[in-house]
Amino acid sequence: MAKPSKQETVVVEPSVEAAPPTKGHATPTRKEREAANLRPLVSSNRAGATKANRTQQAQARDRARAGMAAGEEKYLPQKDKGPQRRYVRDYVDARFSIGELTIPFLGVYIVVSFLLSSSSAFSQIALYAVYAFLVVLILDCIVLGFTLQRKLAAKFGAEKVSRGFRWYAAMRSVHLRIMRLPKAQVRRGAFPV
Fold first, then answer.
1. What is the pTM of this model?
2. How far apart are the C-alpha atoms of 142 and 171, rounded to whole Å?
């Protein structure tokens, strides 16, 4: 007959860890903590604080201006935000619009009208040229609006096309390309897909 084996009991001694270091000072009272957090409402150096505030605001304005020019969504005004408006901007910037010639054309007309008397035949021809230019400009904006309606409906869905995109596109197409804000992000001929 075999003897029953004794179970050996293992005594696990608690590990002795190093005691955490003490703070070295007493916990501050609430009154002491509040006194340490007090900040003056008005700085004692008002001129320096004003100058620092102006510098900070100027840097924020410069960053916002650069961000808006670059087309960063965060810095765009509400009228320029969203994927549809970005698509409209890119489409208008990719094509040549008659409206881009508006400022130079009207500048030439103003110079001509000052140089010539209003009764001369050439000034009458110049006036009719301005009217013809405006008619062509309006037709170009109408064609642009219908083209964008079709493209936006194909890309985003006909029911999701936002209102006001035609006016937005027309106003952007009338500006010179270098004067547009946000700046053009695509080169000519690189139409968005």
1. 0.69
2. 12
